[in-house]
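Repro:
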Amino acid sequence: MANEPELNFEEAMAALEDIVGQLEHGDVPLEQAIDLFQRGMKLSQLCGLKLEQVERKIEMIVEEDGELRKKPFGTADDESGEINE
């Protein structure tokens, strides 16, 4: 993966699904299975990072005291007034 151009989220997920399918079949030689597993772990990390980046960009619009306000994704006021993350 080091020499490959960076994949977008959808491409990385498709490649990861392909790897999972190959490994689930069970007819892959051990050395190839290890390589596929390592590549799958890298793709999984890439997808996780991309999701975190998107999550930071998303803002929720909430109504507070009759006004609309923007809040970062992943935070919400519960009844106690504490912010959940």
